[in-house]
Structures are given as structure tokens and as C-alpha cells.
Amino acid sequence: MSASAAIYGCEGLELSVPEAAFFRDVQPWGFILFARNIQSPDQVRRLIDALRATVGRDNAPVLIDQEGGRVQRFGPPHWRRYPPGGVFGRLSGGAETQREAARLGARLMADDLFRLGVNVDCAPVLDVPQPGAHDIIGDRAYGSTPETVSRLGRAVAEGLIAGGVLPVIKHIPGHGRAAADSHFDLPVVEASAETLESIDFAPFQALSDMPLAMTAHVLYRALDPRRPATTSRAVIEGVLRGQLGFSGLVMSDDLSMKALSGTLTQRARRSLSAGCDVVLHCNGDMAEMKAVAAGVRTLSGKAARRAEAALARIPRRPEPLDRAEAEARFESLLAGVWP
Predict the structure, then answer these.
(1) What residues does 189 pair with on adjacent strands?
(2) Distance from the first to the final alpha carbon of the chain
């Protein structure tokens, strides 16, 4: 059976019988884990194996938001803490030191994920925060300039891929000047197209060769005065595909976020019609997932080819890593800055 153009979460530490039946029926392209799904390494492995068994694909994408700092689903006591992205941009020693630390942190993170069976990390954050914006991005950003964000974002993406984990660049085409948290409200950005192009879009264009991207639930007046990026063909086809040259798979941000309007079925249909390849639903609520599924189609055509190409980017073997040596080097690079 072909995969459907969706990624779903699940409710708890184990897959329930109704969840397993639903996933077997709708055959999502992938799954996403949150803190509610995580207790111990062995438990996570069992859950991931159960999720993949429902769709019969050993390489089915399993995603996690593992950025470091505020956004880290795997943490103590079983996994180390990682700094937020902004720490790397503040390191002394110049651009090369910053780049080395960012890449090494991502390589260690990928090692954590690879050992569990997670093969996609929703990072790096390529948003460039602007004065007066909501702090939903804040220190998750690698710096305050497009150049720093691009440089360190690429280091993180390369570190993840080296460790056998696909990166997801987010939140395309830029969440850095949003004055609201899209979990609760629709951010409206009034900046001109020229300003957006020179600042917000620049890191995404610089990393347009990456395999996966996640949209911003943000309305950009200069691009589409009525629709947020996730449901705007003008933004996805005109800006992401055209202007930025992104040829990888585009996934929506979480459809349950309040920035989007309409029913979940409508949100799914609008996102896919606008040009998203797959939609993301995170909270594991069965009624909501069924509503999303009613608006989702089979992954086919260009979207299916992008999905296949993305998974082909996972190396057969991760780059060699001496964990103890890497940990020691990483801590020396962060000494006096974090924690």
C-alpha cells in the first residue's frame, strides 16, 4: 500500500490497539515523538519498532524536535543536555570555532537519535530573530544575522546527516519577525518583500539543498495578504520552490496549531493544495487524526519522488565517532559559556 501524505504522533509510551489499527489503515509516511512518548531508551526503541511495524516500512521516518535548550525531547537522565542554538553564535574564537561546536553538537545528538531508531530531527532553526518579535524563536536561533544563521545552520545539518539523521530546515520562509506565537495566534508580518528576501529568506536559500523543510504558520502581507505560508500557493510555489530554489520535501508545521483556521480536514486539504508534500499532526488525539486523514491524499507524483530522495540522503553507515573524545571536545569548546 502507498503511504499517505501525513505524519502523525501517538498518545503515550506504548502504541494502543486503536492507534495501531488506524496507522495500518491510513499508512502515514511517518511519525513524530514528543516527551509524552519517552521514558527510557529501550521503551523508545520498542515504540518505534511498533510504529514502523504498522506501516511495514523499516525506514519509515520517525521525527523528533531535538534542537537543544528549550526544545529537547530526549534529555536527562538517559541523554545529555544540549545548549540552545544561540550559544554557538556567542562562542569566542571566531567563526570556525562556532562552526565546529555546532557541527559536533549535532553529531553527538545524531548519535543519540540513531541509537534509538529516530532518523529525522526537526532542526536546524534557520529563523533570523528581529527586534520586537515574539520570543518563541529567541535563543533557538543561531544568531541575529542571516550570515551567522546560515553558517551554523549548515554545520548543524551536516552534523546530523553525518550521524545518519535527516535535518529539517525550519520554519521556511522565516519566523524570526513574527510578533505572535503561532501555537496560539496567527502571526502577521508587515515587512516588504525586499526586506524579507534580504534577511528572512537568506538562510533558507543558502540551505536550499537540504532534504526536508517545515513551513511557518505566518502570514506575510507582501507575499499573500490572506493566507499563511503553510496554506499559500503563492508562498510555497512562488517563494519556496521558485525564489529560494528549494527542491526537497516540504512538510507543514503542526496542523493543530491555532494559527490556522478551519477544520483539521480543511487545514490538511488547504496545505496539500498549496504545495506542501506532507502534513504534520502532532498531539496523538485520535479524533483529530481521523479528521486530518479525511483531508489527506496518497503520496504520489513529485511529492513521492521528493520523499524517496530525502530518505536516500541517509548514509548507509554514520560517520565514525569516538563518543568519549567527541564529548570531551564539545565540552571544551563550550567551557565558560554553557551551562
Answers:
(1) 220
(2) 48
User: Are the C-beta atoms of 249 and 29 separated by less than 8 Å?
Assistant: no
- Which candidate, 166, 183, 172, places its Cα nearest to that of 30? 166
- The residues assigned a catalytic role are 183, 253
Q: Which three cell numbers stand for residue 315?
A: 548514509
Q: Are 325 and 297 within 8 A, CB to CB? A: no
Domain boundaries along the sequence of the chain? 63-99+118-278+302-314+323-339
Extract the C-alpha cell encoding 179.
510578533
Pairing mode, if any, of strands 219-220 and 188-189?
parallel
* Interstrand relation of 249-254 and 212-215 (parallel, antiparallel or unpaired): parallel
Domain 63-99+118-278+302-314+323-339 is found in CATH 3.20.20.300: yes
- The rounded distance, in Å, linking the Cα atoms of 186 and 139 is 21
- Per the DSSP assignment, residues forming a β-bridge with 170 are 125, 214
Check: CB of residue 124 under 8 Å from CB of residue 212.
no
Q: For every one of its 339 residues, what pLDDT tens digit does the chain have, with 9 covering 90 and above?
A: 699 999 999 999 999 999 999 999 999 999 999 999 999 999 999 999 999 999 999 999 999 999 999 999 999 999 999 999 999 999 998 999 999 999 999 999 999 999 999 999 999 999 999 999 999 999 999 999 999 999 999 999 999 999 999 999 999 999 999 989 899 999 999 999 999 999 999 999 999 999 999 999 999 999 999 999 999 999 999 999 999 999 999 999 999 999 999 999 999 999 999 999 999 999 999 999 999 999 999 999 999 999 999 999 999 999 999 999 999 999 999 999 998
Residue 161 to residue 20: CA distance in whole angstroms? 30
Question: DSSP code of 164?
Answer: T
